[in-house]
Amino acid sequence: MREREVQVLRNARLVGIAGAGSETAGPGSETAGPGSETTGPRSETTGPGAGLVDVVIARGRIVAVAPGADAPVGAEETDLDGRWLLPGLVDHHVHFATWARQRARVDVSSARSARQAAGIIADAVKAGAAARSGTLVARGFQDALWPATPTADLLDRAAADGGQPGLPVAVISHDLHAVWLNAAAAARYGAPHAGLLREADAFAAEQAIDAEAAPRTAGLLADAVAAATARGVTGIVDLQMEDNLAAWRERIAGGVTGLRVRAGLYLSHLESAVERGVRTGDEVPGTGGLLTAGPLKLFSDGSLNTRTALCSHAYGDAPALPRGGYGHAAHEPEALRAHLARAREAGLEIALHAIGDLAVTWALDAFEATGARGSVEHAQLVRPEDVPRFAALGVTASVQPQHAMDDRDVADAVWADRAQDAFPYGALARAGARLAFGSDAPVAPLDPWVAIAAAVARTDDDREPWQSANAVTVEQALAASVAFPKVSPGRPADLVAVERDPFTASGAELRTMPVAFTVCAGQVTHSAL
Q: Is 233 exposed, middle or buried (0-12, 13-18, 19+ CB in 10 A)?
C-alpha cells in the first residue's frame, strides 16, 4: 500500500449514485446529511474532455473536487486520464479468513456427482496437494442435484487412488453449510461421524479445519486483501465465525491493511462484548479508523443447497429434516425475539441469516416485535406480503446476487412453484427496501462487479435472464455496493477508478469491469495505471 499524506487525482470523470449510502451501510459509510448532493444515473460528462475534474485528498479525506485544482506542495499526482471515478465498493457479507484459505484449496465445484468430486480429489492427492499439511481440504461441492449422497468410502478410495491411503480428506460445501469427511478426517476434526455433516455439525468441523490452518493464514490474508482491492473494494463486513474484532486488530497491527472492516460477532462472543461495552459502529482505537464493531450475526435457518432453508412448504425430495422436511430452524421465534431484544439493549445491530420464506417471516416478525435495527441476510425466498415489510421496518435486505445465478437450477427444482419469489431484488427495490450487496465469500467471488452484473442481468451464461422481473437497474445495483453517494469534499477518500462507464456497460462488461485504481483511507491500495 503506497502511503502519501496528500494526493491529487487528475482528470477524473465522476460517477454519482442517487440513493447510495446510509448510516447502516458498510465500512466508510456516512449519512449524506441535509443539503447533500447526489446525481442521477449518469457519469458527469457531456463529451470528450468535458466534465473532467481533479480530486484533492489530504489526511484520508477528500478536501476538494474541481477542474484544475491546485496541487498542495509535496502532493503526489496521478492522472486518471478520463477514467470513471466513483466511491469505493463495499462487500456487505464476507467470511474473509475462510475466503483467504479457500482460495488455496482444491476446487471441486465443477463436479456433477460425488464420484466426479472424488476423482478430482484423487488427482489432487496424486499431485501432492496434501504434502505440507498431512491432510487434504477441498471446497465447492453442491450436492443438491447430485444423483447420490456423498459417502465417506468415496473419499477413502480417493485418498488410496491418489497413493495415500488413510489420508484425512475434508470437503467444504459451496455454501459452507455442509462438510463431507472420510473417517480419518472425522477423527482428526472431532466430528460426530464420517460422511456428510450439515449445519451445526458442519460449522464445528469447519472451525476445527480453519483452526488447524491458522498458522498458514497470515500470508494468505495479505494476498486476499490485494485481490479484493484489485476489484475496487475498500470495505467489507466480515462475518467470519471467530472473535473478529480481536483478529482484525491483530492483523492491522501486523500490517494487513488496505480495507475498512466492520467486524461482526456471534452469540458465543455476545456477553463478553456487552461487558466491554462494544456497540455497533464503535471505532477500535489504534486501527487508524480501519476497524469498527459490526453487527451480531444470528441464524434463523440453513441453506438452499442443503435443503435446510426453513420454508412454508415441504421439500419434495428432502432428506429427513426437522419439521417434516420443511427445513431447519436454528432458533424458534421466541428465542429470536429474545436475542434481538438483548442485542438492541446492548447497542448492537443484527445481521439475521434467513433464506427460506418462513425464516424471513420469522426474522421480520422479530425485528418488528423488538424494534431492533439491522439486516436480513440472504432473503432468498420472500413471500410477496413480506416484501414491503423491509422498508416499513427499516430492515436492510443484505443480499448476494451471484447466489441467484449459482442456485437458479436448484431453486427451479426445489422451489418450482415459488421461483418467481426467489432472490426478489427488483421487488424489494420497488417496495423501497434498502439493498446492500455482498458475496458471502467464499460462497461467491469477493468481487462487487460480479454481484452488480448478476443483479442487473440476471444471467451469467448464455441462457436467458432468470426471473427477469426481479432484475434491478445499474443505479440501484451501484447504490447497494458503495458506501456513500458521491465523490465530494468531506467524504472519506475511499475511491475506485474504472475503465468503463458503468451506466453504459453491458452485463458481461459489468462482470469483468477493469479496475484501474483503488484508494482506501487516502492510501493507494491498487494501481494498474
A: buried
pLDDT of residue 237: 99
pLDDT tens figures, 52-61: 999 999 999 9
- DSSP letters spanning 381-399: B--GGGHHHHHHHT-EEEE
Adjacent-strand bridge partners of 178: 198
Residue 48's pLDDT band, with cuts at 50, 70 and 90, is very low
Of 394, 449, 389, which is closest to residue 424 (Cα–Cα)? 389
Angle at which helices 357-370 and 333-345 cross, to 10°:
40
- Number of C-beta neighbours around residue 211 at 10 A: 11
Say how far residue 407 (Cα) sits from the centre of its chain.
Answer: 16
The C-alpha angle 110, 114, 115, rounded to 5 degrees, equals 95
Domains recognised in the chain with CATH numbers: 1-88+485-529 (2.30.40.10), 98-215 (3.10.310.70), 300-437 (3.20.20.140)
- List, as own/partner pairs, every contact residues 405-410 make where C-beta atoms lie below 8 angstroms and the sequence separation is at least 24, other chains included: 405/454, 405/458, 405/459, 405/460, 405/461, 405/466, 406/142, 406/174, 406/443, 406/444, 407/304, 407/305, 407/380, 408/466, 409/145, 410/142, 410/144, 410/145, 410/304, 410/305
pLDDT of 198 reads 92
- DSSP tag of 206: H
pLDDT at 32 over 90: no
The whole-model pTM stands at: 0.91
Q: What pairing do the DSSP bridges indicate for beta strands 233-238 and 260-265?
A: parallel
C-alpha cell at 267: 452469540
Q: Give the 3-state secondary structure of 144-180.
A: CCCCCCCCHHHHHHHHHHCCCCCCCEEEEECCCCEEE
Q: pLDDT of 338-354, one tens digit each? A: 999 999 999 999 999 99
Using CA atoms, how far apart are residues 529 and 521, in angstroms rounded to an integer?
Answer: 19
Cβ-count burial of 128 within 10 angstroms (0-12 exposed, 13-18 middle, 19+ buried)?
exposed
Q: Give 167-170 contacts, CB < 8 A, sequence gap 24+.
A: 167/125, 167/130, 167/134, 167/135, 167/136, 168/134, 168/135, 168/136, 169/121, 169/125, 169/135, 169/136, 169/138, 170/135, 170/136, 170/137, 170/138, 170/205, 170/209
User: Residues 457-503: pLDDT tens digits?
Assistant: 999 999 999 999 999 999 999 999 998 999 999 999 999 999 999 99
**Alpha-carbon span 207 to 221, nearest angstrom:** 17
Rounded to whole angstroms, how far apart are CA atoms 110 and 278? Answer: 42
Residue 401: asked if its preceding bond is cis (omega within 30°), the reply is no
52: left (phi over 0), alpha (psi -120 to 50) or beta: beta
| Cell numbers describing residue 293 | 464493531
